[in-house]
Amino acid sequence: xxxxxxxxxxxxxxxxxxxxxxxxxxxxxxxxxxxxxxxxxxxxxxxxxxxxxxxxxxxxxxxxxxxxxxxxxxxxxxxxxxxxxxxxxxxxxxxxxxxxxxxxxxxxxxxxxxx
Amino acid sequence: xxxxxxxxxxxxxxxxxxxxxxxxxxxxxxxxxxxxxxxxxxxxxxxxxxxxxxxxxxxxxxxxxxxxxxxxxxxxxxxxxxxxxxxxxxxxxxxxxxxxxxxxxxxxxxxx
Lengths: 115, 112
Description:
The structure holds two protein chains of two kinds.
Chain A: E1 4-7, E2 10-13, E3 19-25, E4 31-38, E5 42-51, E6 54-57, E7 65-66, E8 76-78, E9 87-94, E10 105-106, E11 110-114
Parallel strand pairs in A: 2-11
Antiparallel strand pairs in A: 1-3, 3-8, 4-5, 4-9, 5-6, 7-8, 9-10, 9-11
Chain B: E1 4-5, E2 10-14, E3 19-25, E4 30-38, E5 45-51, E6 56-59, E7 62-67, E8 72-77, E9 86-94, E10 101-102, E11 106-111
Parallel strand pairs in B: 2-11
Antiparallel strand pairs in B: 1-3, 3-8, 4-5, 4-9, 6-7, 7-8, 9-10, 9-11
């Protein structure tokens, strides 16, 4: 089954404790991206990657890091989480084509709470 | 500055009637537009898309209209069903851009 898998789905942590949210896709997609969803703000892009070893900042990259060492994986790293990073996070992937990112496939989301 | 705007946070319609969700964009370089549907506790799922070379795309009960001169697109759902109740996101991308820009979403409620 084609899917984007995120882990953990739910996490409560404390300020300053490094954490990683993993994302894996099994569709051989070139493009992967991380979004956060907050009430009244919709989906905002954090980082994206057009292919292995290529990453770029989205609209809200501060406080986050990513890496793309393999095509299927795109982990999101919070080196020193703060309460304003409490949010619902979505990983997504797609095949790149003439229409850019095209149809994105999303994971089920990871709800993160930073105390 | 918001490049993709959904000015109606919510919309309520009666079952069987038409739902019209609107979206405006500011970047004339956008050439591909998509609508996503999101249920609570799930990731967004792709619904329908349209290329800038078209002005209409239809898929069953869902039709997207694009007015490039007005930088406006709309999603029509006919007839609306209670299962259509969800948050709908409009999104846009440019051909060479690596990112899909989303609007803030419109919560649709279809009442039986």
